[in-house]
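To whoever picks this up:

The nightly regression suite flagged Nucleoside triphosphate pyrophosphatase as changed. Nothing in the input moved, so I suspect the structure step. Input below, exactly as stored in the fixture:
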Amino acid sequence: MLYLASSSNSRANLLKEANIKFKQIFFDYNEKGVQDKNPFSYVQKVVFEKEKQFLEKHCEFKNILFADSIVCVENEIFTKATNDEEALKMLKFQSGKTISVLSAMILILDNKKLINLSKSDLILKHFDEKDLQSYIDSKLYQNKAGAVMSEGFHKKYIKKIIGNQSTILGLNIEILKAFYDENI
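Regenerated output under the current build:
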């Protein structure tokens, strides 16, 4: 069985859809302390810190998956919005641009450790202001990196996806499935 050390519903849903047996261990980690201006190293530092903090408290688990995602627009890093104003600022900055979703994961198994960084891009149309305000009012942006909801609000504004949809949702499930064998 795989243990998902994450509070993310999106990651849990990806594992369910992939028919991977797992147990979710809710683990809150505040990434605000990580200082790095490079989006690629930032997201990797966060996932390494998650691993470290989790294993300090829960060293008894095996077959553990850690993951984190950020959104990057013009080298600006966006994590989870903490309020409506922050979400609105993030979304207005994304409108009509190409945004990148960077998703890092660490898979720890008995006989191996996989460290992966995946990137997918969304080329977006400009957002409608009324639609944008409705999205903010709905609070559906909460717990979404960069307030991005590719399966919801952003869906009708996507001109093109370059990369895997699962990476955009927070976990490159294709890479995970290539390395994780439930029979281990």
